[in-house]
Design a protein that fits this description.
CATH class of one domain: Mainly Alpha
Structural class: alpha+beta
Largest sheet: 6 strands, antiparallel
Length: about 850
């Protein structure tokens, strides 16, 4: 097109091209000025209604008059029907180009953000939301001004059917959680994007840097990013707070308006005495949501995959024996608190934890020897040898009791055959309170003798990181005990207090400093307050100064570095931990995850495989590798790993349940049902029953079986209105008593109404409520809720489709047809329509059949 004339514009050169169209530099021959012409992609304006709405939006944007907003001169069409926008041309570069060329310093970044906020302030006051604030849409002119471009085009993209998955990862990175979830969009979505921009300018990286769509979107919606100051220590705390408030997940927790952001940034610049402009040349110058009725299942599946326990056991159990076997697969069970004094329980829990950790280091070169982590024992609530056999397929359980006798502590240790639950050996230690620091070493070495491990090779000593001060050691053990239940912040606070008291008594106690580092890391994990990261690093570094050979310290540092986006440093820390403790499962897991975050997928895979080679009979390694393959979308490889898990722990439900999840994503529903059934036979659970119910309902049309599964789930937990509704629907289609069906729907409605009181603007909930009201005969209320839900979330295809299903139940076929076909055009899965029993008659409608035929033909083309 170079050299051609369009209307009174002569095309001079091509400036750029993107998903919305092509931009050219042009000369306006009528007014003798240089302009930019953006020719829109034909896909964006193919629909006359969409094009009409765009023209209205663009006209509104053209009335914006602000120095930080690119001016729109004209909206027009070429002779062959191509739409274009004539905009102001600015000599300079985009913010995207500037960041790539020479990232701005903090002062410049804040100045840029302030000008963007001022432009948004003007637009928002006129009722216009940009929806696509990103570096490519910010021009930095040579005259030191910021110009926001492309107002109105983001809305055009959404209305033309271009979904979020059709956008680049770079664009998705700046989208708000509510955009990705298909929720109602308002001015606060622009504030979120501004926060991401400012974060990137002052740190040199985006808050979320995942390269794959699913991982990126999951992080934006669910994960809190590290504060900017943890990536760039030069960022002041005041600026940290501004950025973090801008990118809150909940829009209600962000700044109330762009005006508030302008005020906050002005205050910041005034306090820092930074000039508002620097006149230096070149300076400035959703995804389709799943059907609501599937939401519980999919969330459960995701949670199941993301929360697989990381350390379990394997290998065949032994028959009766009187001495320990050559292959030792060990579980340390919680110690009995003799006397049941609650004050002694933290000490007991702490001793169990450090003995477990110490036992893992006895024979690091023996591939047949491994110990289940204390965290897995607690997580699975394993308290007996039988439990240890079922959950971990352990061969030996260590059971013990601890008793305080005036100035002495007595520890009894028992080895138990998990197959027969018979005691193999028993022994006892008794130490004075003054000799308490020796308890750990003596207990570990006694167990080594009981297990027939050569004590000359494996003589254990807790090393130079320990203490000789008895009271200090006691406080440390109590702190470790409290830290085991770190989900309760008050327990972390108690642990911090105890570690500090231990350090007061022995200022060179490296393990206590390491404990403090871990405790502060846990505080950060629970609160996301950056001050705890600083404390965690401070005390971990202090532990390193005293003793650089504590693997736990390097693991803690690696986890902090990983949480704050310093992945290269995390790799080094986890490597150092593995040099000190070659079988440390936390270090392997952390190292592999750090490699994934760096994009080094091959190295991550090799790390998981190396862990397996060291302990080939330990099922946790295969489980972790399976989770890795699942995350990479390599479902066939994931199947192989979870089949190995089942081979090693055939009596645990987890292998079958995890494998069922993978087969669900492979769309092999009969196999998934078979595996969930097997898991439920071993250990029935709420999620397994609920998953089975949904699979039977939608993919097998076995409504009686589905109803039974939902009843089983509700016998465990009866608080989810969706499961009650599933039970009602399955009961209806299986021909059960109508009074029971009505009772189930009424229960679902009651529970849903309780949720509505908490959030009356939840569009998906309102559609569910409308469905329950329809089933109960309250048609007027149902219609009102449907209308309101569609007003709240006009672009949420889950809401659109489910509203259509309810309209079909209300007898409004025309409205149902409009909504359901709209949802399908926007990317809703046809299989979800096809498998819904409420739509049997709908699917036979000639109009719908004709639509599907045309839709399928067009999709194929």
């Amino acid at each position: 097109m170079i050299g051609q004339s369009i209307s009174h514009y002569k095309i001079l050169e091509k400036l750029g091209e993107g998903g919305m169209g092509v931009v050219y530099k042009a000369h306006d021959t009528k007014l003798d000025r240089t302009v930019a012409l953006k020719f829109l992609s034909a896909d964006l304006t193919a629909n006359p209604q969409t094009k009409s709405r765009f023209v209205q939006e663009a006209r509104a944007a053209s009335r914006l008059d602000h120095p930080n907003i690119s001016v729109i001169h004209e909206i027009g069409d070429t002779d062959d029907g191509r739409s274009f926008i004539c905009m102001g041309y600015y000599d300079g570069e985009t913010l995207e180009e500037r960041i790539e060329r020479d990232p701005p310093d903090i002062e410049t970044s804040v100045n840029i953000a302030l000008q963007i906020a001022k432009g948004l302030q003007s637009a928002h006051k006129s009722g216009i939301v940009h929806r696509d604030i990103k570096p490519a849409n910010i021009m930095l002119t040579s005259g030191a001004y910021v110009k926001i471009v492309d107002f109105g085009l983001a809305k055009l993209m959404s209305e033309s059917g271009i979904t979020e998955t059709g956008r680049s990862v770079g664009t998705l990175a700046y989208m708000s959680p509510e955009q990705l979830q298909g929720k109602k969009i308002d001015a606060k979505t622009d504030l979120y994007s501004l926060g991401v921009l400012l974060y990137e300018m002052i740190t040199g990286q985006r808050p979320f840097a995942e390269e794959h769509y699913a991982a990126l979107m999951y992080s934006i919606v669910n994960v809190d990013p590290p504060p900017p100051s943890l990536i760039n220590p030069s960022v002041p705390k005041e600026l940290d707070e501004i950025v973090l408030q801008l990118i809150r997940k909940n829009p209600d927790q962000r700044y109330k308006s762009a005006s508030a952001v302008v005020e906050k940034l002005n205050d910041y610049l005034s306090e820092k005495k930074v000039p508002l402009h620097k006149n230096r040349s070149g300076l400035i110058g959703f995804i389709s949501q799943p059907k609501a009725i599937f939401a519980a299942l999919l969330v459960v599946i995701i949670i199941a995959v993301l929360s697989f326990p990381d350390s379990r056991s394997s290998l065949p159990s032994f028959f009766n024996f009187t001495s320990a076997p050559d292959d030792i697969h060990l579980v340390v069970l919680p110690f009995l608190n003799v006397g049941e004094d609650p004050a002694n329980q933290p000490f007991n829990d702490g001793l169990m934890e450090i003995l477990t950790s110490s036992l893992t280091m006895l024979q690091p070169q023996d591939i047949s020897y491994w110990v289940v982590s204390a965290s897995d024992v607690r997580q699975q609530n394993v308290t007996s040898a039988r439990d240890a056999l079922r959950e971990f397929n352990a061969t030996i359980a260590v059971h013990g009791s601890l008793q305080r006798l005036s100035n002495r502590i007595q520890l009894t240790l028992n080895l138990v055959d998990t197959k027969t639950a018979r005691q193999i050996k028993s022994d006892m230690l008794s130490v004075s309170v003054d000799s308490l620091p020796h308890l750990q070493d003596e207990a570990v070495n006694l167990l080594a003798q009981m297990l027939n491990i050569d004590d000359k090779e494996s003589r254990f000593t807790s090393g130079s990181g320990s203490t000789t001060v008895a009271r200090s050691y006691e406080l440390y053990l109590e702190g470790r005990g409290y830290l085991q239940d770190y989900q309760m912040i008050e327990n972390i606070e108690r642990a911090i207090n105890l570690f500090n008291r231990a350090i007061e008594l022995d200022p060179e106690y490296a393990q206590a400093y390491a404990g403090l580092g871990e405790a502060y890391r846990r505080m950060y994990d629970e609160t996301r307050d950056s001050e705890w990261v600083d404390m965690a690093i401070q005390y971990s570094e202090r532990a390193k100064e005293i003793n650089n050979e504590l693997a736990a310290v390097h693991v803690t540092l690696g986890m902090i570095q990983q949480a704050t986006g310093r992945y290269d440093e995390a790799v080094n820390s986890f490597r150092r931990a593995l040099e000190l403790d070659s079988v440390n499962s936390d270090a392997y897991r952390g190292l592999a995850r750090a490699y994934v975050q760096l994009g080094s997928i091959d190295q991550a895979e090799e790390t998981y495989k190396r862990s397996i080679r060291l302990r080939p009979t330990y099922w946790a390694g295969y489980n972790q590798l399976g989770g890795f393959y699942y995350g990479q979308g390599k479902f066939t490889e994931a199947v192989q790993q979870y089949e190995k898990v089942i081979e090693l722990i055939p009596n645990s439900s987890y292998g079958y349940s995890n494998l069922g999840v993978v087969y669900y994503y492979l769309e092999d529903y009969p196999k998934a049902i078979e595996l969930f059934n097997k898991a439920s036979e071993i250990e029935p659970g709420y999620f397994i029953w609920s998953n089975l119910g949904t699979l039977h309902y939608y993919h097998e049309s076995n409504f009686e079986e589905a109803a039974q599964m939902y009843e089983n789930a509700l016998n465990i937990s009866d608080h989810d209105h969706r499961v009650w509704a599933h039970l009602a629907s399955a009961s209806y289609w299986s021909g059960r008593d109508s009074l029971a069906v009505k009772e189930y729907y009424q229960k679902a409605l009651t529970l849903a109404k309780e949720e509505e009181r908490v959030n009356p603007r939840d569009a998906e909930l309102l559609v569910n409520i409308a469905g329950y009201q329809t089933a109960l005969g309250d048609f007027s209320e149902a219609r009102q809720n449907l209308t309101y839900a569609l007003e709240l979330a006009p672009e949420n295809i889950s809401v659109i489709c489910n509203a259509g299903i309810v309209y079909e139940q209300l007898g409004d076929r025309d409205r149902a047809l409009t909504l359901i076909t709209n949802a399908l055009e926007r990317g809703y899965a046809y299989s979800e329509i096809e498998n819904d029993p409420h739509l049997r008659e709908f699917l036979r409608d000639p109009r719908f059949i004709s639509f599907i035929q045309d839709f399928t033909t067009n999709s194929a083309e």
